[in-house]
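Quick start: read one record
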Amino acid sequence: MPIKIADSLPARSILEGENIFVMTEYRAMHQDIRPLKLLILNLMPTKIVTETQLLRKLANTPLQIEVELLRTISHEAKNVDEDHLSSFYRTFDEIKHRHYDGMIITGAPVEKLEFKDVDYWPELCRIMEWSKTNVHCTFHICWGAQAGLYYHYGIDKFDLPKKLSGVYKHTVEKKQSPFFRGFDDEFYIPHSRYTGVSAEDILANPELELLSTSDKAGVFAVKSENNRRFFIMGHPEYDPDTLQLEYERDVNKGINPDVPENYFVDDDPAKGPLVKWRAHAQLLYSNWLNYYVYQTTPYDLDELTETK
C-alpha cells in the first residue's frame, strides 16, 4: 500500500524512481478509506534528505499513510530553501487543533548542548506535551529520543568519551515484543552521536521498558509501558552513504574523526560502505506502524485520551 504525500514534494520523484509506491493527494481523494495520519517533526538541518529517508521506510508497508511535515518556528533553518518550508511544512499553531495516529520526532545535531540551551527547546516541550492528548503513538529518534526521555521521564543524557559512529550489533532484550517480531537474534543499526542514556536509569523507571541494547552502542530501543512512546537511539532510516558523507564532512573540516566502525568494507573508506541494516530497519518501522499505531489507534481520532 502507498504513502500519501503532496504531489510536488521532492521525495516523490526519488521514491518513485526506486519503485516505491507513492500515492498523490489527487488519487487518494478518490479512495473510500481512512489512511493513518502521521506527523513528522523534522529537526534535522538537511530536511529533504531526512524526509526522503523516513518516507522510504514508511512507504514500504501494507498501510496507507497520510503524512504532514512539521517544523519549529523558534529556529531558523539555514540548509533548506524557504520556499520548500513554506510549501510543505506546517507550524505547531497550524496543526495543534488536530489529532494524529502517529508522530515521528527526528534527531538533531545539538547533542553537545544542554536541553535548555537549545533555542527551540521550549517549543519542543510544548509539542511533546501536546502529543500526550493529540497523538496515539510517538516515535522518537536519536537526540529526539533523548529529549523525549528527559521531558517525559526526567532521564538525562550523558556525554560519551568520543563520538559514537558506525554500524553496531544489537540484541533484543524483550523477544516477545511485537516491535521486534520477525527479527534475527542479532541485527545491525547505524549510530552517529556524542551522547547516550543509561540502561540503569531506564530499568529503574517502572513506566519504561528496555527493548534492545548493544554491547558497544548501549541502549538502543525503549518504549513506554503503555505503548504510546518509543525511543530509538540509532538511525535505522540512514541511507547507505549517510555515515560516509558525515565522515568526509568531518575530515574536510579538519576534525580528524575516527573511521566509522564496522561500516566500510574491511574498515577502508576507499572501499565504500557495506549495508547490513536495511532489512531490519524496514521491519522496525513496519512493526511500529502495524502493531502500535494501526492495530490500536481509535478510528475516530477525537477519541484520543491523555497519556501519562
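The two ends are 33 Å apart (CA to CA).
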